Amino acid sequence: MPIRTVFIFMLALVGVFYPYNRGALFTALVVIYALTSGIAGYVATSFYCQLEGTNWVRNLLLTGCLFCGPLFLTFCFLNTVAIAYSATAALPFGTIVVIVLIWTLVTSPLLVLGGIAGKNSRAEFQAPCRTTKYPREIPPLPWYRSAIPQMAMAGFLPFSAIYIELYYIFASVWGHRIYTIYSILFIVFIILLIVTAFITVALTYFQLAAEDHEWWWRSFLCGGSTGLFIYAYCLYYYYARSDMSGFMQTSFFFGYMACICYGFFLLLGTVGFRASLFFVRHIYRSIKCE
Asked: Phi and psi of 89, rounded to 5°?
């Protein structure tokens, strides 16, 4: 996810996307997603095998369907709504066939090849220090150290860094404004990644200091919680800032924004987990274990 997003920003910075040609952005999204699926398969399978997973094929299928599955179901529903309303937003049959062919002939083979390469080049998981065979009992913790309060804190701070920029992006995508300052948007995106990484690392440190070793999924959920705040902003924008009404506009707005926010959840969750994993390895490698 982060690699694909960076590629999109690189194309925007060199002037590939024109303000009045929004189709170029969607075409670039499909092509870049297809071409980078091999990287996703390699990273997912290699890390899965490092953790001594046995069913790497299921892991590979989950990698390919984790984002595309909900997106495909949402697209089918919204495209059916557009056809029922005889709207121009409905994709023609030929375009749908092209997308399916790209998925079948490009995305899936690259995903499988990347998964095979990741399985064959697997290495043992390098623990930074000696580990025990049985997990340590976690002591009782106060309520504010549970998952939901930490997700609220971890999501609000990165969201506050992009709050101002969100209005202009929404006005460009769902309104009549034109957004062309991609350099500022790229800087804001980098700030978002940095803030997400630092906040997740800080929360992971406090979690470990409280003798709670189950930080793996917590770091992912805390990092990705910004996507939930963005979707909450969608509710505010729809009712307070936009002029949209009717079933079709409402379904399109909340349907596609749900997919985008879900993508941000996966992207920022990955950033938070990777940052926490690097941090934990660093601090425990610095400890002299007997």
From this structure: -70, -15
pLDDT digits (tens), the chain, 290 positions: 566 566 565 655 555 555 555 566 777 788 888 888 999 999 899 888 888 778 888 999 999 899 999 999 999 999 999 999 888 778 888 888 998 899 889 999 999 999 999 888 766 666 666 666 666 777 788 888 888 999 999 999 999 989 888 888 888 888 777 766 777 888 888 899 999 999 999 999 998 888 888 888 999 999 999 999 999 999 999 998 888 888 999 999 999 999 999 999 999 999 999 999 999 888 887 775 54
Q: Are 197 and 278 in contact (CB under 8 A)?
A: no
Q: Domain range spanning residue 162?
A: 129-290
pTM (predicted TM-score): 0.88
The three-class DSSP label of residue 150 is helix
Q: Considering the domain boundaries, does residue 8 fall inside one?
A: no
Domain count, the chain: 2
Based on the domain organization, do 40 and 108 belong to the same domain? yes
What secondary structure letter does DSSP report for 104?
I
On whether both 111 and 220 belong to a single domain, the answer is: no
